[in-house]
Amino acid sequence: MSQITSPPRKARQAPVPAAGPDDGARARRVSRLKRRLTPYGFLTPTGILLVILMVTPIIMVITYSLLDGVITNKNPAFIGFENYAEVLTDPVFFKAVRNTLVFTLTSVVVHFGIGLGFALMLNSPLLGDRIKGLFRVIYILPWLFTVAIVAVLWRLLLSPNGVINYLLGATGLTEGQTEWLANPSTALAAVTFINIWSGYPFFMISLLAGLQGIPRELYEAARVDGAGAWAQFRHVTLPQLRPIIISMALLDFIWTTQQFALIWMTTGGGPIDATEVLSTFTYKLAFTRYDFSVASASAVLVLLMSMVLAFFYVRHQKSRD
């Protein structure tokens, strides 16, 4: 006789407790916190790199500037601001400041003039597209060369037996073989000219982009009002380009004050400190005199000057936005 088996009973499931209002509020808080922390999670790697590569070296340099005999002594002594006093009483430092200002102001002003002139020409409807393309390639070439190539190229051109002296002598403008980079009276002007030649494309490209973004309706309205070419340039072009001009001028000023490679590879700060600037002055303190404490003090002073310029740049950008 077969045994009849009853179907197995289903196990009773424990009732799921209903989610209360506290659990929903907690989930919403966790979700909001995740959304707020997500951007910081993406920025964390960059922040770590900035701390390692920027904040830490700055703190070390500031610390070195307050000590005596850094690197050379095992136990450097704390001397406060004596290194700063030594830098500020050094006559070469003030000569470097003067040369830096002359070099920077001249470069920025001429960069703007040449860049604006070439940008206006390349934006003119009088030139064909092929001619504009050819001129753009020619005018942007100086910006494509590295600093090393620019320095070597112009050292050859400005040498006593170089092309520049040959052309000037052939036209009767100079006599003999001029030492452009070795003469104290011409070295700073020669280095400034080289920096102008290699840096004007930065202004040219930026201003050309600004010119192409000016609405044509403004010029048409100005012509309807009877404005000529100069009036259009003065009352339409310059006001529209003013934000770009100020931004580019501040950036160029900051970069030019920190120019080192070009001067070091052409004149080395000489002859007789004729082209000594703040960057070469600080470099020589550290790696010629091996006085890293005084060099750190000079570097901190340069950093403070750069921070002032950066403050004005950031302030302008905020007001522009």
Automatic annotation (TrEMBL):
The UniProt keywords, alphabetically, are: Cell membrane, Membrane, Transmembrane, Transmembrane helix, Transport
**UniProt keyword Cell division present:** no
Which residues does the annotated region (Disordered) include? Answer: 1-26
Give the InterPro entries listed for this entry: MetI-like, MetI-like_sf
Cellular location of this protein?
Answer: Cell membrane
Q: Which GO terms describe its cellular component?
A: plasma membrane
Regions crossing the membrane: 42-67, 101-122, 134-157, 187-209, 244-265, 292-314
Q: Name one GO biological process term.
A: transmembrane transport
Per UniProt, residues of the ABC transmembrane type-1 domain are 97-313
Superkingdom is: Bacteria
Main localization category: membrane
Q: How does it sit in the membrane?
A: Multi-pass membrane protein
Give the Pfam families listed for this entry.
BPD_transp_1
Name the family: Belongs to the binding-protein-dependent transport system permease family.
- PANTHER family to which the protein is assigned, alphabetical: BLR7065 PROTEIN (PTHR43005), SPERMIDINE_PUTRESCINE TRANSPORT SYSTEM PERMEASE PROTEIN (PTHR43005:SF1)
Name of the protein described by the UniProt record = Sugar ABC transporter permease
This protein's species is: Cellulomonas carbonis T26
